[in-house]
Amino acid sequence: MRFTPHTAEDRRLMLQRIGAASVKELFAGIPAGIRLDRPLDLPAPLSEPEAVRELGKLAAENTGADQLACFAGAGAYDHYVPAIVDTIISRPEFYTAYTPYQAEVSQGTLQAIYEFQSLVCRLYGMEAANASMYDCASALAEATHMARDISRRPKVLLAGSINPVHAEVVRTYAHGLNIPIDVVPLSGNTIDLDALERLCTPDVAALIIQHPNFFGNLEPARRASEIVHQAGALLVVSADPISLGVLEPPGAYDADVAVGEGQPLGIPLSFGGPYLGIMSAKKKYIRNLPGRIVARTVDTEGKTGFVLALQTREQHIRRERASSNICSNQALCALAANVYLATMGRTGIAEVARQSMAKAHYLADGIAGVRGFETETSTPFFKEFVVRTPVPAAKVVETGIKHGILAGVALDRFNPEWKNRLLVAVTEKRTRVEMDAYCVFLKQEFAN
């Protein structure tokens, strides 16, 4: 198909219809300081081999997590991805850059989604799950909307220990939906239960907590659940799916909605995405879940079949009854998680969780023994923990790269008051040699 650019007459007619006298007038609303006022300085065209070579040089400037001992986390983790995951999702009948809009035509796609939903329900101890969301942040934001619709109450409480990036997405959604947000303050690195009791007023729709939380610590989830439900509100929990190999699932402490970031389930770091939003709920709230839900049925001949049972999108039902404008799912990433969960099984997930937890505690003990460094581990933690550093945490991260170590995430990127706090994550991939080298690096560079 040929590319036919607009002619001068085409542009004149379009401007006339818009009501602008010129292209300059059309863009007058864009601040002059960010407008390009010169021709683009583009290099000469390249042949395909030359372009591939140039792109290869640019890519080589990146240092991936596979080239470093990665102790960074904060919502994205360097877990091992079994080879079978890429093998399965690369099959042409599955491989797609985005969601299948015509899911109804493919029994294979529908079955894969149904199995994903089933595995999420088993992992999170919940009764219903949707076909997935874009990421954990969007799932949390949708849960905010969902909780208000269910409870008919206006306000949502947000734990101060939620991932700051996820919290910002929740606030952005809430602003557009006119949902007031109150933050539950912390006692140490977990929520203050006394403050929670005071804040649970009759106008509160839900409490949103992360367990394990952003700092890696375990929240008093059962007590928080009791307080929230006694006040007639809902409990929304964000849980790392790997942690559920050793921790009780959200359903066990009566969560109403449970979400999570599916990236640890067979999805590579990929410089930050695409990732996978997990979303589940009690069965009685199934019609409030956003997105798609696939169901299993039988046809007229008694054969098992799969159908797109619910789509609470405004294209399908009355707009005022639509639960969300989210109308698709992260099909390929959900399939990767599906393959990962089926491959690892109950014992495999538990083993990954146990190794991650044991190694995190081993490294925390090692860092605590380095002069000038303190670990915030008085509260139980899973695979992440906070370290107080004698120099700005960003300096530790920068120096560590020279030693082949990605030392963690400097927390001042989220809050300038956290300049000397480093968030360290440990997965099953990290070895004793790497963890010992981490402690040696800290001693050599900062303990003298």
Structure characterization notes:
The protein is α/β, with parallel strands linked by helices and 448 residues long. The chain has 2 domains: 65-79 and 349-446, Aspartate Aminotransferase, domain 1; 83-341, Type I PLP-dependent aspartate aminotransferase-like (Major domain) (Aspartate Aminotransferase, domain 2). Helix content is 36%, strand content 16%. The chain has helices at residues 8-18, 23-26, 48-60, 83-89, 107-124, 136-151, 164-177, 193-199, 221-230, 331-368, 393-402, 432-446; strands at residues 69-70, 128-129, 155-159, 181-184, 186-187, 190-191, 204-210, 234-238, 257-261, 277-281, 292-298, 304-311, 374-376, 384-388, 405-406, 409-410, 421-425. The strands form 5 sheets. It has a 7-stranded mixed β-sheet, sandwiched between helices. It has a 4-stranded antiparallel β-sheet with strand order 13-14-17-16, with helices on one face. The radius of gyration is 25 Å and the shape is globular. The model has no long low-confidence stretch (mean pLDDT 92).
